[in-house]
Each structure stands twice: as structure tokens, then as C-alpha cells.
Amino acid sequence: MSENGVTARRSKVLTIDTMNATVKKVEYAVRGPIVQRAVQIEKELKEGAKKPFTEVIKANIGDAHAMGQQPITFFRQVLALCSYPELLKDGNFPEDAKHRARRILQGCGGESIGAYSGSQGIECIRQDVARYIERRDGGVPCDPDNVFLSTGASDGIVTMLKLLVAGEGRSRTGIMISIPQYPLYSAALAELGAVQVNYYLDEEKCWGLDISELQRSLEAARQHCNPRALCIINPGNPTGQVQSRQCIEDVIRFAAKEDLFLMADEVYQDNVYADGCQFHSFKKVLFEMGPEYSNTVELASFHSTSKCYMGECGFRGGYMEVINLDPEVKEQLSKLVSVRLCPPVPGQALMGLVVNPPQPGEPSYTTFMKERTGVLSTLAEKAKLTEQILNTVPGIACNPVQGAMYSFPRITLPERAVKEAKEKGQAPDMLYCMKLLEETGICLVPGSGFGQRDGTYHFRMTILPPVDKLQILLSKLKEFHQRFTQQYS
Amino acid sequence: MSENGVTARRSKVLTIDTMNATVKKVEYAVRGPIVQRAVQIEKELKEGAKKPFTEVIKANIGDAHAMGQQPITFFRQVLALCSYPELLKDGNFPEDAKHRARRILQGCGGESIGAYSGSQGIECIRQDVARYIERRDGGVPCDPDNVFLSTGASDGIVTMLKLLVAGEGRSRTGIMISIPQYPLYSAALAELGAVQVNYYLDEEKCWGLDISELQRSLEAARQHCNPRALCIINPGNPTGQVQSRQCIEDVIRFAAKEDLFLMADEVYQDNVYADGCQFHSFKKVLFEMGPEYSNTVELASFHSTSKCYMGECGFRGGYMEVINLDPEVKEQLSKLVSVRLCPPVPGQALMGLVVNPPQPGEPSYTTFMKERTGVLSTLAEKAKLTEQILNTVPGIACNPVQGAMYSFPRITLPERAVKEAKEKGQAPDMLYCMKLLEETGICLVPGSGFGQRDGTYHFRMTILPPVDKLQILLSKLKEFHQRFTQQYS
């Protein structure tokens, strides 16, 4: 407070020392320093800087369209029709696209996607989501009132975590997350001031989830906090594993026994590539386990328009389904989401199309299926290619990319490199990735951004670049790894 | 923790008693119980229920398209082109729309609005925002690096508040907000656990802002918290006043003297109707006051695609500009927004069009200007109509609707009505609005949802219904008020 009025050297109200301390703790590696440097290098290249490469390849983030994947024609046709309904008179648009567009517009206030929707999302889209879930889960019923559309899956996940966090000191809420994890979780927990409870995936067993490790982690956590929820990402991010039905059943049994709220991040549900692997939703398995479980275990599951075969990240579409949520808590959830008015309506429309795509016999069906299958089979090919090539490099060990969009190989780093990084106050795999970026233009995320067992090092690499570019990327990476190892030996 | 394994009657992990207590404190009247009842009544009407009315008129929320306002053709053409670029070959689209669409697509990864953008927003759109601000503010420079695109203005406001909240007990951050206020502010402050510091607008002086009231409020707050920021909504929501240049200068001087961070919610900047009133941005006035102020006072200002002449709420587009923000805090801000990846890209595109509309000489200019002027002049007409008719009702006193989209008239309620409400544990104006809804189908928001001086009662009503419907609404409201007064006298 100044007593002599204003002076030109008045200090700031808001400084790094006086700002929200929990925000300072937030970290988000997928868009961290390495990506900032990549953006900078791109600008330098544009301005004519000479580098040992001509372009930056961003394999740091699951951003399919940015890597050249084409949108699904039907989805974009319907979105164009919804945006500019004058096009409903245009003979070049197929009838099924027009029909979907009319249905969405009828669900909107004033038949405009420019109107706010209900905070929980447009009703007819929530109904379509419910029917999609029922089909996916072999007929297990889904009530549209349990479906909340969201601004990407991230929004739903953060909202559920927000409801769960309570207590102080030893009774502060703990949230169990896998390590390696997707850093949205650690960032949200830091911001909410919840206790992050780590359980480790087993790299030796293809990043499998082991119940005894869950038990160990839980018991350790109970010494200092109140663990209340267990988060699972399946198929895995960053680790690319696909959980077996048995494993999911074991996890549900564990959650029931230990009174844990389950959060199932299932945004990669269509991204399953490996032979013998199959996606099982937590909800389906829960209901197959009978009423003892399906009537009691609290579950929130999350989906998104950003991944799978559509890769429509920019629209920020998503939904969550809540099972066995206490009705009073559900009311609080409805109230909470109403403050932000509604998820973006174009994203809602897109989510509605994903859960209600063209059907056999409709004019757009053949093209839709061709495009969908094309994307998924190319991803499967790239998953295999990535694993195979990486495993030819001495000092790199890559588990099969069973699903999702990432490989998370382990890298052996020479002791001298580890030492140099530590002297610089840098994570050793950050040193590695930063050098890789500067020398080759390849942008990956160091394993330390996701968490890993002490003394192990990894990176996350998406499998999204087009096949020819991916091959170049992998061979450059191979050369780099050999050079790096030699240099520091 | 259960020791005997699962039982069918296992209690919930997450209950109203064990959930996040701060979330329970959140209230959001604009979508509160009255709106839930309105939605229910709409369903009852659809199912054939007999009511004294045939439709619910929602004058509770600034949702222009839901009230029949038509979108701006040019904006929707560009959005359709961006959604389905195949249309760029279509001869029916004007060249300027195609040009804008190409520019936006070139700013997107893979030239697709389905790619993530940078977390701060698409660069060329931030540049367009900066140029718009410069034009609006008579040449005051704007750095695109200070512009953050957001998911509606709400997102930007909550993000800035999040950075500001710190301290415990007596040093907990206090945030000054006007009463009446827009309940996003109280909801966000409750959720963040900040101290809400009320200053009252002067209803007798057309909801004017008085510096001595700011001073009173600040000094009272300093007894129990650390007031750090002052929020202003101009033009006002829910009160519809437009601040004079002098008033803004006084506020800035006050903020500078008292070391307060300024937050200027300017989402209604094009919604100014009253003769002699004009919109002045806080930034412009700040810079006109000279370097003593423009180099020191920290300011965040907010804009949106949801209001003004476009009313595109569903797209959740918006931006904030930060002035004099500490560079380290700005880095933290960039990091914080990166966790949610990016604002919805269609909303970003729309924001880009709002700040860069068709120019004289371009093919879409005439139609654009006609549509824009049409919407704004109709709104001006409805603002006047609302004020005039309401003021003919004994027991209703309505200040001029100088700007924004709302009237916030004061209503005199008979003592017996106040008593009955209190017996029911209800706010008296909630009783009034609920009865109005049940008897006439008109949905308004009680003044108690925005805050008001003790013992006074108000409602907020949008001026958005079409003129003929607005007239019916106002005459029904008049009848109702007379009936209500009689009934309780």
C-alpha cells in the first residue's frame, strides 16, 4: 500500500512471489521447455537460419491432423452444414449428412450452434452417447442423465478430481495415478493441492498393471493421506499397453475392496493394434461382474474426439459417464459445470457424430468406413514399424505399442551424460531430447515428464508422422542415439 | 476401508459430506433452480400439460441465437469453409470469406482446425486481435504476445483469478467485485477460496460507480483479508450501465493508489445504446493518463464472441489482454493454460473474424454492415422499450438500459410476500420469479442471484426476445406484478 500516491517505480501487485503457490507447482511436459525450443527453432528456420535439418518433426504430442492425418469427410460435412445451414439446400451434400445436421440443429436453441447448450450438453447428443455406450458394451444400459459432455476429456477429468479433493493434513485426498502417467493428472493434482499417489507399471511385463503394486502404493499412501480414487489410462498413455479383461476385473475388485473411486481414461478406445489385444471398457467389465460390483463401485469414464481414428483435437469435444455417483454429488456436479455455461457446441456436435456415425445402407457409409479403416490400419502399421526399428538400436528397448499413439522406449544413457545433466540441474533424458532436437529437428518428450522408476530413462514418441517421415525420423533417431552414446562413452 | 471385503451395501466413496467443500459453496443463479424448473415446464408442455401459457420465454440468459437472433452470414460462411475446405472450390462463397478461411487454415497445424493450436491461441489470430485493439483504442500499441485466446471470457477471468489467489487467514487474497455482479465472479471466488469483497453500485445514480464506495469497501476488507484486485464489468452486467471516461480514469487512479490489479470485463463493448454514452476501454484510458499509469498499473481485459452483435455463445470464443503483467507471472500463465492444451479452435477462428470483419470494398462488406447495424439498432430499440414499459408499472423502477443486454429493475414487494418467502427459506425475489414462471412461462433471474442492497429486490431480464415477443412478455409481466401486489396486499 502506497501512502504517497503513485510513483513511477511502483512494484507489481502480482509477482512470482505473491502469486498462487499451487499454480507454480504445476508442470506439463507435453508442452514444456522442449516444445518451446522447437517452436523457436521453427521460427529460426523460417528466418533462414542454417541447421543440420530443414524442418522440425513434432512427435511430442498426439496431434494427428498436424501430422497430416485427414479428417473424416462425413464429420466435416455435417459440421459445415451446422455452421452455415444455407448449405442444407446444396445438392452436393449427402442426405445422411444433412439429416444429422438437422438433428443437431434441432437440439440447439434457435436451431443455431451459436446458442448455449444445457451445461451437461445437448440432450439428443447425450442420448446418442448413451446408445453408443450400450452398443459398445454389449447391451449394458446407459442413462443419458449420467452422460456429461465436456471440453475435451481433460475438462471432465479435472472436474471429477475437483469434486474428490477434500480434507487437510493426513486426511487430505490422495489420488492414485500410474507411473509413467499422462501429465494432465499430476498438473491437475498439483493445482488442486491433492496428494499424488504413484503406482508403477511393470516395464518388464509390457507396462502391465500389477495388483500387488497397487496394494503397496495404497498402503504406503495411507500412512500420510486419504487415498480415495484410482486413475487408469487404458489403452495406456504414454506407455501404449492394452489391459486384459482379467486385469480390469482385478482392478475393479481391488477398488471395491479398498473403497476407491475409479476413474477410467478411455480416450484411446479405438486405438488397439496388437494381435490378441482388445479394448474392454471398465463399465462393461464392472457390469459383467454382477450386481455386487455394478451396484456399488463408483466409476467415471472419459472419452474424447481428439484421438482414435478422428484425431479432432482442436474441437475440444468429449464426454464423461458417471456410474453409481451419489445423487447429491451429481447435483453438485451439474451445478459446477453450469458456471462455465456449456462445452463448445461444435465439439459437442462432433462428439455426437463420433458416437453416431454413418450406418450401413446410408450414402456416406462406404466412404466413412474406408477412411476410418485406412487411418486405423496405417496407425497399426506405424506402431509395429516404430517398435521394430527402435529395437534394432543398441541401448534402446521398446515394448510393443499395443494401442494408443505412443511408444515409450527405455534408453540407456552413458554415465558421463547422466553426470553432465546432473551438473546442469537437468534430467538426463531432457539433456538427451534437447540435443536430439538441436541436432536433428526431432521433438520428443523426455520420460521424466511422465515419471519413471529412478535411474531409468525414456522418451515418449508419437507414432503419428506419415510412414515415410516416420521412417526418416526413426533412422535419424538411431544415428543420433549411436552418436550420443559414443560421444559420452 | 472395509476389512471383510465387499458387501452389497458398501457406502459411497464420494458423498455430499466427503466431497470438496469449496465446490458446495459455488452458486450460479443464471442457471439455478429457476432455470431447472423452466426446463421441466418446457418438457411438461411438450407432453401436453395444460398451463396458462403455451411456451416458456427464457429471458434469464444472454443467449441471443436462442432468442431468434440470426448469425452473421460472413462469419458462418468462413466457419463452414474452415470445417470443410472442399467448399473453397465452391463458386457460391464470396472471395473474402475464402481468403479469411485460407488465412485461418494456414495458421493451423496440418491446415486443419482439428489440430491443437498453441495454448495461447493461433498466432495470426492473436495478431489480428492486437490490430483490432489498436484500432479500437486510437493507436495505443498492443503486443500479440500479451493476447491469450480463451474458451469464452469466463475461462480467461477464472484463469487470472487463479493466479491472484494466495495467502491464508488475514492475508488471504480478497477480490473486489461490484454488487450487483455477474455470478461467474462469486462462483469462481468460492471455488478458489478467495475472499469476495463487495462494493455497491449506486442504483440512484443509474448504477454508477462511486470512488468513495470503493474506498469504504477496500478499507473494510483490509481488516480481514488482503484485497489485491478490482473487477469491473463495463458495460454492466446485470445492471446495463455504461461507465463514463471520467469514471474509468478515477477507477484507474484508485487502483494505482491502492495497489490493485485491475480486471476489466468488456464483453459488451459494442452494446452501447443510450444517447451520450460511449464505450471507453480501460486500456485506452490507462494509456491516455500517461506513463506514470500506463507503465505501472496491471490490467487484464476480457472479450468474447458471445455478446455484442454476434451473440455466438456456443462457440466459446474469447480473448484476454494482459498489460504490465510481471514477465515471470506471464510465464506461469503460459504454463497454466498449456495444461488444457488449447481453446476450441472454431471459437478461436470466430474470435479472429470478429476482430477482422469484412472491410469496405470487400464483397461481403455491405451485407455484414447491414446485419451488424440491424442487430444493434434492434437491441437499442428493445433497450428503450423495456425501460419505458417497466417504468409504467407501479412498484417497478427501471434504470435506463444504457448498454449490455439486461434490465435490472427494482421491484417493490408487499410485506406479506416477503414474510411468506422468509418462512419458506426463500429469497423474496425468488418467490416472485418462481410464481411469475409458473403463471406466465416467463423465466427471469431473481436479483438475489446477483447480489443487491439488503431489503431491496430486483430481477434481471434480458432484452433479447424479438420485439413482438418482448412486448407480450412486458405486458404479461405488468399484469403479473399488479396481480402479485394485489394478492399479497
From TrEMBL, chains A, B:
Molecular function as annotated in GO: L-alanine:2-oxoglutarate aminotransferase activity; pyridoxal phosphate binding
Stretches assigned to the Aminotransferase class I/classII large domain: 91-474
Pfam family, one: Aminotran_1_2
Enzymatic reactions: L-alanine + 2-oxoglutarate = pyruvate + L-glutamate
EC class (word): transferase
UniProt signal peptide: none
GO biological process assignments: L-alanine catabolic process
InterPro entries: ALAT1/2-like, Aminotransferase_I/II_large, PyrdxlP-dep_Trfase, PyrdxlP-dep_Trfase_major, PyrdxlP-dep_Trfase_small
SUBUNIT field: Homodimer.
Entry protein name: alanine transaminase
